Structure formats: C-alpha cells, structure tokens
Amino acid sequence: MTSQPAARQALILGTSLLALAVLIGAFGAHGLKALVTPERLVTFETGVRYHFYHAFGILALSLLQPVFGLRTSVPLYAFLAGILLFSFNCYFYVLTDLKVFAMIVPVGGVLFVVGWVALAVAALKLR
Q1: Residue 27 has what DSSP assignment?
Q2: Closest-CA residue to 120 (of 66, 53, 74)
Q3: Residue 21 half-sphere exposure, CB side, CA atoms within 13 Å?
Q4: Which of 6, 26, 63, 124 sits between 20 and 30 A of 115, alpha carbons compared?
C-alpha cells in the first residue's frame, strides 16, 4: 500500500488547490466582468472549471491511495502540472492578452489526459 504521508500530502495539495480555485473563480466572476470581453471571461471560466475538476481529482487520489493501494504519483503530478499549464495559462492569457500563454494551454490539456489514463492503468493493475 501507498504510505499515509503521501495520501496526506495529496489531501493537503487538493484542498489547497480547491481553495485557490474558489478565490480565482470569485475574482473572475466579480473582478473581471467589467474589464474583459465576454469571450475572454468564458476562457477564464474554462480555466477555473478545469482547475476545479483536477483539484477534485487530486483530492480523490488522496482517498484512493490508502484504500486501494494505488500508485498515484503520476496522476497527481500530471494533474498538478495540467492545472499550472492549462488553467493558469488561461488566466494569464485573459489578463495579459499575450498569445504565448494561449499556446501553452493544450500542453496542460494533454497532461490532464495523461493523468486520467495513468490512473486507469494503475486501477487495471489492482488485484
């Protein structure tokens, strides 16, 4: 089985990322509405939505580790990197209008898929 400290770290990381998603989402809903176009607001909200999905995914990993003994380090790091590269680049793009941030977003999306596939593979290896 995976160690309890790893599950605890995933729990702390997941809940911290969820709190951050709430704060960023509130900023987008209340602080950006008058500053950016509706299209840009949609991009920001997409970043927040995927931030939430994958922070919940990390939270789920913290429960799956001790219960099933899954090796979840690959999904955890893929979700974390995906949040940083997908969601945060959505945020930066909306705030700066720099295309370089928009060009990085797909890399984060691929990392989200890698994380889910890695979790499926780990589950398939269960006895």
Answers
A1: I
A2: 74
A3: 22
A4: 26
Place of tokens 């269960």: 126
Q: Which domain covers residue 118, as residue numbers?
A: 4-124
Question: Could you tell me the pLDDT band of residue 71, with boundaries at 50, 70 and 90?
Answer: confident
pTM: predicted TM-score of the whole model, two decimal places: 0.93
Residues 6+ apart with CB under 8 A from 81: 108, 111
Q: Which two tokens stand for residue 45?
A: 């909200």
**CA neighbours within 13 Å on the CB side: how many for 86?**
25
Give me the number of domains the chain comprises.
Answer: 1
What gap in Å lies between CA 2 and CA 16, rounded to an integer?
A: 21
Which is nearest to 17 in space by CA: 46, 41, 44, 51? 51
pLDDT 10s digits, 11-67? 999 999 999 999 999 999 999 988 999 999 999 999 999 999 999 999 999 999 999
Cβ(118)–Cβ(74) under 8 Å? Answer: yes
Q: Which residue has the tokens 């797909």?
A: 106
Closest to 47 measured CA to CA, from 88, 82, 75, 17: 88
